């Protein structure tokens, strides 16, 4: 079988070469060299924001495939629709959708409609870290965490506010002349992420409040597992956090999901293991350590018991699938 091809994109230059039919800046103030004077095409510490309609017009047809980007992506859709896969989840997004792609996440574009409009922003961790001292780490934003939802539906008012932030960020980005001029761009990026987090958390909280008691408990249990699975692996651990008995958690989770709480914890760990084996170049020993197993041999037995394959065999099987 042929290996499943995943295109690795590491910087702005590789993004433009791999994505765009013409190597040109997306700013009207570009230089004769085809890019803005302060753009770092083949280095770390880079940023780009562009209208979706411009990217759509320049998009190569072979970009409709799998990629892994060594940077973060934020997309706002104001018109049109897209079909994309982020990690193992497939999405169909339309107007007023704001979605996020974490760094090093498998990503596949299946369809971008011809009437697509909005904004597309990419940046790496180094660029963001130079924004403010003691700011939130990118990995702490919920929409950049692999186990969380990566998209949110905005109200018209919320969408208008986010559009204005993108427009200001885009204007400052295209007006730059020196690296010091990046300050406002970085600040607007920070404001955009903070505003997106507020909307995201308010929507999550509203969903929890509207759930019946048992559904609320199970949702809280799921969130806690995602936060603590590296150190808390017994149902009793979560019962203590939720102030209920292990028996009550098991019954509630089984009623809502069809399986006991212990199986949910186990499956979550397995899912994280599979993601690390497929989406990273970490060795099996490093994956074992990343998941806080005391010994690689124990991790190997755990993985094979529940999947029927060793970690190495699972990775090989996935990479040789068409």
Can you walk through the features of this model?
The protein has 322 residues and is of the alpha+beta class. Helix content is 47%, strand content 16%. The chain is built from twelve helices and ten strands. The protein has a five-stranded mixed beta sheet with strand order 1-3-8-5-6, covered by helices on one side. The longest helix has 28 residues. About 3% of the residues have low confidence.
Short summary of the structure?
This protein is α+β, with helices and mostly antiparallel strands and 322 residues long.
What descriptors fit this protein?
single chain; 322 residues; alpha+beta; Jelly Rolls; Arc Repressor Mutant, subunit A; 2 domains; five-stranded mixed β-sheet; five-stranded antiparallel β-sheet; 10 strands; 47% helix; globular
Strand count, sense and closure of the main sheet? 5 strands, mixed
Indicate how many domains the architecture comprises. 2
What strand line-up does the widest sheet have?
1-3-8-5-6
Which structural category do the helix and sheet elements fall into? alpha+beta
Number of helices: 12
Round the Cα radius of gyration to an integer and report it. Answer: 22 Å
Instruction: Kindly provide the name of the CATH class of the largest domain.
Output: Mainly Beta
Under the CATH scheme, the architecture of the largest domain is: Sandwich
Strand percent estimate: 15-25%
Q: Give the overall form.
A: globular
Q: Note poorly predicted spans.
A: 29-38
As for the CATH topology of the largest domain, it is Jelly Rolls
CATH superfamily caption of the largest domain: Jelly Rolls
Q: Which percent range fits the helix content?
A: 40-55%
**N- and C-termini, Cα separation:** 6 Å
**Residue-averaged pLDDT, rounded?**
84
